[in-house]
Specification:
Strand content: 25-35%
Order of helices and strands: EEEHEHEEHEHEEEEE
Largest sheet: 9 strands, mixed
Bound molecules: NADP nicotinamide-adenine-dinucleotide phosphate
CATH class: Alpha Beta
CATH topology: Dihydrofolate Reductase, subunit A
CATH architecture: 3-Layer(aba) Sandwich
Shape: globular
Number of helices: 4
Number of strands: 12
Helix content: 10-25%
């Protein structure tokens, strides 16, 4: 599986149920990357999408423990095992884990590639992603040139798992 995440320099990803930063080019890159694939999100992250709607151009799988939970344009799963069962037969390379913190934690062990947008700022935060630079299991294999959005500097990075 792949994971897609935007982090600040402390590997923070969110605060008070909100994104830390919204960068239009980063949002477009996520949509391009996931087109034609399967995206996995937690219920809270879906609520943060534009109008709380699933992503277009891909199959959306939303995790929620509530049996009554349903979303138009998305499939739901009420446990990790139910999710993995529904993904049986789907090529792992087509699957993108899109957050939030709880979903990243549960599914990072299944991921071999990480698309990380690294924002050179430090935000107030209460949600984090594992610091892949400090992990012996991951190596950065690609980094874009410096990108800017107003006063924000950021980089598109790719990491590969080198061991389990
Ligand atoms: N920077 C980024 O790239 C990025 C990307 C995504 C999200 N975020 C940030 O992450 C934060 C949200 O993360 P979060 O951890 O609070 O919420 P989350 O992971 O988006 O959603 C959590 C919810 O997902 C459901 N869930 C998770 N695992 C489950 C499982 N195994 N079985 C059944 N349901 C499961 C539960 O829903 P129920 O309560 O309905 O049972 C749970 O309350 C926000 O601040 C957001 O901005 C950042």
């Amino acid at each position: 599986m792949n994971v897609i995440v935007t982090v600040d320099e402390n590997w923070a990803i969110g605060n008070r149920d909100r994104q830390l930063v919204r960068i239009p080019a980063d949002w477009r890159a996520l949509q391009e990357q996931t087109a034609g694939g399967v995206v996995i999100m937690g219920r809270k992250t879906l609520a943060l999408m534009p109008q709380g709607q699933p992503l277009l151009r891909c199959r959306n799988m939303i995790l929620s423990g509530s049996p009554a939970y349903a979303v138009r344009g998305a499939e739901t799963a009420d446990s990790l095992s139910a999710l993995l069962k529904k993904l049986d037969g789907v090529s792992s390379e087509e699957i993108y884990v899109c957050g939030g913190e709880s979903v990243y934690k549960q599914l990072l062990p299944y991921c071999d590639t990480a698309y990380v947008t690294m924002v050179e700022k430090s935000y107030e935060a209460d949600r984090y992603f594992e610091n892949l630079d400090r992990s012996e299991a991951w190596n950065m294999t690609e980094e874009s040139d410096e990108q800017t959005c107003f006063d924000i500097t950021y980089y598109f990075r790719k990491y590969k798992r080198i061991r389990r």
